[in-house]
Write a structure and sequence with these properties.
heterodimer; A: mainly beta; seven-stranded mixed β-sheet; globular; B: about 120 residues; mainly beta; about 55% strand
Chain lengths: ~110, ~120
């Protein structure tokens, strides 16, 4: 089974900061990777699909990149409403979520 | 509009079987796949399994021996059954639609495994 490793597990940043979250796959998943945002008490929300495609309605400050085993979610200018846990998810071989990165305000 | 709603018992005894229903509206189960995802309290997301639009199923290898997913397209319902429940199966259970990603989610149903 493919393992997904997210880092860091906890990230503190200030409003306006550029924030980068990492996700690494244990084997090549090409670009079959999505990113989800989950706020406390809510169901997850799709942000990015197929590595770098922005889901409808998601602000353009969110972007994704990568291929193979290394992937990144970037928030260009952190907003207070971005406080959440972010999960990567691969669907190239089987289906696996990463353990998540919790993003908080400094 | 697209909606998914999970329903089922909030409390299940250890070793018993969990039965959940995901009732969907706004789309056809013959056009979209529906997945089940769960989340133990304070922990991350775990993909459980999928009912594909063509009726094919696929399961998490760690749960495969205990898990079954089926559907009734006439009622727009997807069913999850998992047997031999243990306390570690306590979680919020979500159903979600797949369209490029999981674009719509149910609100989730909390299931507690306890005697």
């Amino acid at each position: 089974d493919i393992q997904m490793t997210q880092s860091p597990s906890l990230l503190s940043a200030s409003v306006g900061d550029r924030v980068t979250l990492s996700c690494k796959a244990s084997q090549n998943i090409y670009k079959y990777l999505n990113w989800y945002q989950q706020k406390l008490g809510e169901a997850p929300k799709l942000l990015i699909y197929y590595t770098n495609s922005l889901q409808t309605g998601i602000p353009s400050r969110f972007s994704g990149s990568g291929s193979g085993t290394d992937f990144t979610l970037t928030i260009s200018s952190l907003q207070p409403e971005d406080v959440a846990t972010y999960y990567c998810y691969q669907y190239n071989s089987g289906n696996t979520f990463g353990a998540g990165t919790k993003l908080e305000l400094k | 509009q697209v909606q998914l709603k999970e329903s089922g018992p909030g409390l299940v005894q250890p070793s018993q079987t969990l039965s959940l229903t995901c009732t969907v509206s706004g789309f056809s189960l013959m056009d979209y796949s529906v997945h089940w995802v769960r989340q133990p309290p304070g922990k991350g997301l775990e993909w459980m399994g999928r009912m594909k639009y063509d009726g094919d199923t696929y399961y998490n290898s760690a749960l495969k021996s205990r898990l079954s997913i089926s559907r009734d397209t006439s009622k727009s319902q997807v069913f999850l059954k998992m047997n031999s429940l243990q306390t570690e199966d306590t979680a919020i259970y979500y159903c979600t639609r797949e369209y490029w990603g999981f674009d719509y989610w149910g609100q989730g149903v909390m299931v507690t495994v306890s005697s």
